[in-house]
Amino acid sequence: MAAYKPDRFARCASVAAIAVSAASAYFTWARSPFFDAPPVHMAYWQVESNTLTEDKLPQSAELRVVVANNSDRPAKNVLVVVSPLSPTAAIACSVNYEVLDGPKGSRLVTLERIPPKSIAEVHVSGDVKAYPERFSWMGGAKFRYCAKVEDVQTEFGPVRCDYPKCKDNTQRLPGDDGQSYL
Q1: Would you give the DSSP letter of residue 29?
Q2: What is the bridge-based pairing of β-strands 148-154 and 75-83?
Q3: Eight-class DSSP state of 142
Q4: Pairing, β 107-114 against β 90-93
Q5: In principle, which of 56, 82, 108, 158 could form an S-S bond with 102, CB 3.0–4.6 Å?
Q6: Taking a C-beta distance cutoff of 8 angstroms, is the pair 129, 42 a contact?
Q7: Please, what are the averages of pLDDT over each run of 10 residues along the chain (182 residues)?
Q8: Which residues touch 131 (CB under 8 Å, ≥6 apart)?
Q9: In angstroms, rounded to a whole number, what is the distance separating the alpha carbons of residues 125 and 62?
Q10: What percent of the chain is helix, strand and coil (3-state, nearest 5)?
Q11: pLDDT number for residue 1
């Protein structure tokens, strides 16, 4: 009977040690940067739109950037860099975000957390009185009709653009054929 009590204590101690090591391994993994969604499991696309008045004058411009997280893990601190048409453009987002001024009039929008298997949207909109011209190799009047996405990335690398999902709803000004190269 005396040999039985120490044996039971040793078994309980070893089970407790295994439970503690498993719990510490889980929390170390959960707090590590490898717990975040990798950029290869993410994609973004954009929806550009604008409106003209009846006199074919600029009225408003809107850009919607959709960032999809297809991973089983959340994406944290996703950076979306946009260049709005005017410095007074309104920026809104479907998740918690922070906006900072960037170089050359760009805006740095940091999405704090995108849940697993979900999307987040960034809306950039504003009223405009004149669309800025853009450089064209072909000549002629070419205009930029809404904000532009410069970059989307996480701490681990860039997020790819899903070009087939990109949509464009542009009412062009008179004389702009829309066929220029940037």
Answers
A1: H
A2: antiparallel
A3: -
A4: unpaired
A5: 108
A6: no
A7: 66 88 77 76 94 89 95 92 91 94 93 94 92 71 86 92 88 74 48
A8: 50, 58, 61, 85, 143, 144, 145, 173
A9: 4
A10: 20, 40, 35
A11: 47
Tokens for 4?
């039985």
∠ CA 121-107-148, rounded to 5° = 65
Rounded distance between C-alpha atoms, residue 90 and residue 114, angstroms:
21
Which structure tokens are listed for 143? 């205009």
Q: What is the pTM of this model?
A: 0.77
The fold adopted by the segment(s) 39-169 is Immunoglobulin-like (2.60.40)
d(CA 146, CA 62): 6
Residues 76 and 113 sit within 8 Å (Cβ to Cβ) = yes
Structure tokens at 89: 């453009």
Tell me the H-state helices in the chain. Answer: 4-31
Measured from the Cβ of residue 7, the count of other Cβ atoms closer than 10 Å reads: 9
CA distance 46 to 44: 7
